[in-house]
Give the backbone structure.
Amino acid sequence: MKPSLCRSAALLLTLVGASAAQAHMPYVLPTLFDLGKGDHVTVQSAFAEDAFLPEVAMRDAPFHLVGPDGKYLPTGPVTHLRDLSVFEAAIPADGTYRVTSGQRAGRKGKMFKVGDKWEMRGEGGEPPANAEQVDVQSMTLADAYVTRGQPTDAALKPLDKALEIQAITHPNGIVAGSSASFALLFDGKPLPQADITLFRSAGLHDGRKVVAQVKSGSDGRFSLKPEDAGTYLILVRHRGAAPAGSETPFRSYTYTLTFDAA
């Protein structure tokens, strides 16, 4: 890639992209977060513009669990409906489990430059003649945590790959009216000054869909305070150069973390 194109493409980190409320986001939603002594969990997953309002089934996602020992566990068969995907997963022992869509490679597209601004082809119209264009692929990952018995920490360990949120406050310990701490990471390193949005499930009914918008600190840390009991979704997006050997030179990452505030 030409140096000028590399420099221009780097601008997409700040100049490109729909806002959190304007683009589809992935999610996984367990029926329960505290399973008591339950031996399984039922999970729905989809892409949606509004948190937890399914619109497109999450096909081709490598769904799995991470157990209390840090090892990967399979789910049961996944049923794909038009609007959402549903599966059950066995919870064989006490502890905390990560329920995850796995990293899913999505559609490819192009970005083109108009003046000092990058626009997505197909969303911002067709590029003018001789416009610079870069290839980009969407990557999505959605997580949630469920606990059987007493909470444990091994499943909270970051993967150190791509975009992810590390829960500093244990997800099963988040309480309405109290702050919860998290760390935003990209390839295992803190990602500073990133925009983070918190949605609440009840927002579709009372008009309070977005309840917080914050930025990660220089160390990637941030905190959120869910004021009401209920289910919440944290959304973050990041665009950057793809790893060597990828199908496109750039990637657009979207990550969500679903949790329940008691």
Summary: The first strand starts at residue 25 and ends at 30. Confidence is low (pLDDT under 50) at residues 1-22. The domain at 3-261 is CATH 2.60.40.10 (Immunoglobulin-like). Residues 114 and 131 are 7 Å apart (CA to CA).
